[in-house]
């Protein structure tokens, strides 16, 4: 069982082969057993397979090829719409139009997403998370007809693997684990913790390919730039407002 | 393997028996294999076992008994502090003081939390998520000395189970799964989807115990009230500001 977790790799190439409905349902059933705040289940999963809808989703995900290639695109949403409708028709007055409720629903959705990912991998399927979901949430809302009270928080592409990538590197456990309370990092500990990552041949090549002086500069200047982060922050906050959470 | 996911129950009573360090490390290693945005690993886990620190955490979690009873309290944090320090000493200018970056780091932390939960359960351990983490994040920040750039997003109590609760009910899969795009709910579909939940003896008793007319009213009037949600929303947004993300 731990092997499934330990062997995780993101899979970005998929065979042209659908996933049987009973396998999908098993995965979703297992996914929904994840813990959920007060057992409210304030999330939804949208399972998209049709090419016309994938083509509407693709630009929101910067046309990453997995969207069109994977047989299934799963959009995980923070969802208070269903719960609020239930409240209203049960003579209960919902009070979930606020940021805390959005974040509660986002937690619910993300725990389910990871359970779905693990369940899928245990069946031999490959998955890839798309972080672009929160960048262009507005476009995803349009493509999937998400009503007020619903915000997409992550996306997983799902299919039978057609590649066998190496496992990704991770920082040593001591980098992310703090005993008792948080031990802040010193200049020396940072150097120590990132040394292996910086010395990997693929990362040295990555710095060279991007014509940068350090691996960190590839992140700050190329991959996750301040101006982009600020632009998409403002877009995402607008989405939270529009969907009724701010 | 799917059995581990399917058999999930929250465990709130624990034996007075520590978790061996090698078991814990296996769980954390498996946890950290979860997908992470751009392989940045912008999260931290604080593993608290000492009674003095648990006693500081307890009020933040409304003194839920699991905090003192569980041998290990794991606080999962969105963490850009480590990554930013690495950037600065690599002559890279970080641009992560914004809401999108907070949310990115929160996604990372929550996927790891769920992997840790699954890994722990596969070892026979019991877990319980504490949704109170975002209500009183400020108190947790104090208790655990979390620096700027770090925000606690969820907590798991962990230990050997000393109870055998029944599995919780979940809505039928069709309630949370949408095919192709989002199908909004009608009054009839809501009634249909919540019928089983409302008719469970324990939920009927729950309504009676709380002197309410419907199960939904127990949520809106007792458990997750509008005034509380709004109060804690404002507190949590203040924490995001103070920690440098808004």
Question: Can you describe what's shown?
Answer:
The structure is a homodimer of 246-residue chains. Chain A is α+β, with helices and mostly antiparallel strands. Chain A is built from twelve helices and five strands. Chain A has a domain at 2-166: NADH Oxidase. In chain A, 48% of the residues lie in helices and 13% in strands. Chain A is globular and about 60 Å long. At the A-B interface, helix 1, helix 2, strand 1, helix 5 and helix 6 of A face helix 1, helix 2, strand 1, helix 5 and helix 6 of B. Strand 1 of chain A pairs parallel with strand 5 of chain B, so a sheet runs across the interface.
Could you give a short description of this structure?
The structure is a homodimer of 246-residue chains. With 246 residues, chain A is of the alpha+beta class. Chain A contains twelve helices and five strands.
